[in-house]
Amino acid sequence: METNTERFHFRDALPTNEDFLIYLRIKSDEEAVKFSGFKTPPDPVKFRAVYDRIMNDPKQHLLYLCDDENNGTVASSFHYQENDEETVEGLGYNVFPEYRGLGLGGLMMRLVNNKCATEGFKYRLSVVAESNIPSIKNLEKSGAFPTGKYEMRWLEALGREEKYLFYIKEL
């Protein structure tokens, strides 16, 4: 189901405690933990160091998709980094449980694609778990296609290895 895209806007996450707590909350969600490679939600102290590294690295970007109809409430996040002058890599996106099923994954992909193209990038690379069907559908809807490359990763929360597929999108 698609949702009214006019009510959402992106903003950069800020190096504030409030924005850190938003990111900690979304990364602590059961679905986020499942594909993180860890067995449990992040430890807040250790995760704060990760957040601070993201905030201090000019090649990494953490965007929040905000819901204007709900006082700017953050509905989802998108983390990406600049790999080179032509390519950005999506490092992960999450949608808060209360916003799932509204088409925000696809909306985020379109907005990030437009933002990155405007900034002069030509490609967006994404790596996604083969069993993460909603993310694969969003990637494919956004025009990304599988490269044929993959890597195996151990997912502690699932207690098994998972195949991670590489997707590319020309911007």
Index terms:
single chain, 171 residues, alpha+beta, seven-stranded mixed β-sheet, 5 helices, globular
Entry summary:
The chain is α+β, with helices and mostly antiparallel strands and 171 residues long.
Report on the structure:
This protein is α+β, with helices and mostly antiparallel strands and 171 residues long. Helices cover 31% and strands 36% of the residues. The chain is built from 5 helices and 7 strands, in the order βαααβββαβαββ. It has helices spanning 17-27, 30-34, 44-56, 104-118, 133-141; strands at residues 8-12, 60-67, 73-82, 87-95, 123-129, 145-155, 160-170. It has a 7-stranded mixed β-sheet, with helices on both faces. The protein is globular and about 40 Å long. The two termini are 25 Å apart. The model has no long low-confidence stretch (mean pLDDT 93).
Give the topology.
Blueprint: E1 8-12, H1 17-27, H2 30-34, H3 44-56, E2 60-67, E3 73-82, E4 87-95, H4 104-118, E5 123-129, H5 133-141, E6 145-155, E7 160-170
Parallel strand pairs: 4-5
Antiparallel strand pairs: 1-2, 2-3, 3-4, 5-7, 6-7
The portion of residues forming beta strands comes to 35-45%
Derived from helix and strand composition plus strand pairing, the structural class reads alpha+beta
Helix coverage percent of residues? 25-40%
Unreliably modeled segments:
none
